[in-house]
């Protein structure tokens, strides 16, 4: 299929019409599932919207998130206010080759959806990682799932693969890195729903939460210098057992990085991203506990009967005023009754009849 139909992912392929049709259909599907059929709450959505729509020209955006289900993308971009049907603003994404590119139809479809195939276990220097690198060099938006596979357990963020860190280092312009953490997609598309299979359609009436952090800043040149010196002194990175993959020497930002220095640098960047994602996950748990703490007493107050209202104590002079009001009411009733009787006794006027 010639580099997995890379030509189908180009913007000028058939004047971009097939790509626009795919994003209109998939974007509408994401909106329906995330907004209409389920309830989605987003923390700090303005930061993502600002970076997608109006970041400086030529500056790439790299978003990273945990991976809870096979529908994380596109449902992650289906929340209210996000331009999910705009193919020009849409992200590029790394997608598993064995799932999304199994045949010619799927390959063409996901290529139109701006997806780049990656082989899990193929290493950070596999062929299509260069394609992802070109997207960043062009100032595009790329989304990755650095955990490497779906995990539906509510557990701490796992150790991140180094592919994302290598893209940050090798990019000609250091991208804006935006961490994200989400939950609830594992209930919308569980891996083991019936007979250990996924449901044929997304489930409804679930709660989805998306936590968006603040951009991470990396001084790559300074971090490279630190990695070079650290890799020489630390046997964990410089031993032959850990440098047996024969990675090529790269020279970003004018510094040569051998395999040991690359391992040290990628490990440092990945740990910082993992820490930021874990903080977002902890914040989501905290917000949930606060909501339960506030909401549970209110729920109990609705269940419990209201306390009896004590009788009001009479104020001074209230008895005299009450008697006066009763006397006035009786007088008005008597006058109205008399007027009614008087009007009833009067003869009706004679009205002319017209033929």
Q: What does this protein structure show overall?
A:
- The protein has 355 residues and is α/β, with parallel strands linked by helices.
- It is 46% helix and 10% strand.
- A 7-stranded mixed sheet has the order 1-7-6-2-5-3-4, with helices on both faces.
- The termini are far apart.
Topology:
Blueprint: H1 2-5, H2 17-36, E1 39-43, H3 45-54, E2 61-65, H4 72-75, E3 92-96, H5 97-100, H6 104-112, E4 115-118, H7 129-137, E5 141-144, H8 163-170, E6 176-183, H9 185-188, E7 207-212, H10 220-233, H11 235-238, H12 259-303, H13 318-345
Parallel strand pairs: 1-7, 2-5, 2-6, 3-4, 3-5
Antiparallel strand pairs: 6-7
Helix pairs in contact: 8-12, 10-12
How far apart are the first and last residues' alpha carbons, in Å?
A: 98 Å
The topology string of helices and strands comes to HHEHEHEHHEHEHEHEHHHH
Structural class: alpha/beta
Mean pLDDT: 86
Poorly predicted runs of 5 or more residues: 343-355
Could you say which overall geometry the principal axes of the C-alpha atoms support? globular
Give a quick summary of the entry.
By secondary structure, this protein is α/β, with parallel strands linked by helices. The chain is built from 13 helices and seven strands. Strands 1-7-6-2-5-3-4 form a seven-stranded mixed beta sheet, with helices on both faces.
Defining traits:
seven-stranded mixed sheet; 7 strands; 46% helix; 355 residues; globular; disordered C terminus; alpha/beta; single chain
